[in-house]
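Subject: for your reference before the review

Hello V.,

The reviewers asked for a structural picture of the protein, and I figured it would be easier to keep everything in one thread rather than splitting it across files. Below is the amino acid sequence we used in the manuscript, unchanged from the supplementary table.
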Amino acid sequence: MHSLDDLRAGRLTGARHLKLAAGLSEFPREIFDLADTLEVLDLSGNAFTRLPDDLPRLERLRILFCSGSPFEALPEVLGACPSLEMIGFRGCGIRSVPEASLPPGLRWLILTENRIKVLPASIGRCTRLQKLALAGNRLASLPPEMVACTGLELLRIAANRLTALPDWLPTLPRLAWLAYAGNPFCAAVDAAWQAEGRSHPFAWDALELGEVLGQGASGVIHRAVWRQGGATREVAVKLFKGAVTSDGLPEDELAACLGAGVHPSLIPVLGQLAGHPEGRQGLVMELIEPAFRSLAGPPSLDSCTRDEYPAGTALSPAQALGIARGIASAVGQLHGRGINHGDLYAHNILYHPDGRVLLGDFGAASFVPPGDAGLAAALERIELRAFGCLLEELASHCPSAPALTAGLVALAHRCLAPEPAARPSFAEVEAALAGLED
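And here is what came back from the structure prediction:
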């Protein structure tokens, strides 16, 4: 965090990154003194209602965050910023997105938790767009011009007012991570599974929370002790952060976790939290052995959609193949039960040195509307692209087994086929992996 005093005193000269959150009601003109170097500008948590018309003077600006500031519309001046690639206006109360507000070089757009009813047709000109977060708005449809967004890889449209998924959506050649729960077209199946979740309550006053074990976009996970009668048991408790996450609604995540069923490569879920004094929602899970660790870190601002692995990450052949087989089997079960995970990433995978693997984080999970086999197959093929990305990453971090890596890469290419209909099913993927030797 930087200070306005430092900016005005010239102590930030040459800065590439600037973060100011001081309840500001006007854009500080001193920011233009950094025009020769400034690339990342974070003005979240202020009280702006507009941006200056000469914002394009920041010619090197690639990333702009203004989340939490009261904007009625996405500023049109953004469309004229020559280098702008990432825009974040979460929770601003935005009602409209003008045609001119989207820069042609846009790669990542975050408009979560606003009041947007319509997207402009101009979004179809954003052919470099890779990541689009729109959860928690009022969209009843998506513009057909979006079919031209052939680079789109991650799409969050949960908790809107969509009555169906667009027919063109499953045809996008690079779409891999999709969340759509909480829309009217899947309301009935969502409600059924949410009712199922409420049948497994864990009383808040029977839990004693301990240290934080980790956190993600939707919530914070704590170590906890559950007391029932005279017995105690160590568990993990996930407390959700708010009513709408970047991926969707907490109640949909709860329902998907409980609907996933039992599988050796899924984190065991025990039930839903009940009776929190502040009304917060939560999930009670089995406590995972500390030897499990995350396979990777989430994407960075630069990598956009691809995970970041720790430097020097090296997997043994047994680990690489075990991860691939375990995750393929788990996700195959999810689709067999009508659940699209939506966030099949290495950063949501825990692995153990002995080869065991666990898939977690159902924040983007969505139920497949029943009775539409064609849609179910199309959604599975979208998730297969995400699995293809994972296979590529596993192969690249397993240098000691060229024959195995060649097999993983070949299977990855099938899963990444630009024509979604050409991709295999998860059942076919499991069979192919069974034929590979570690």
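For the response letter, the relevant points are probably these. Residues 189-286 form a domain with the Phosphorylase Kinase; domain 1 fold (CATH 3.30.200.20). The longest strand covers residues 219-228.

Happy to draft the paragraph if you're swamped.

O.
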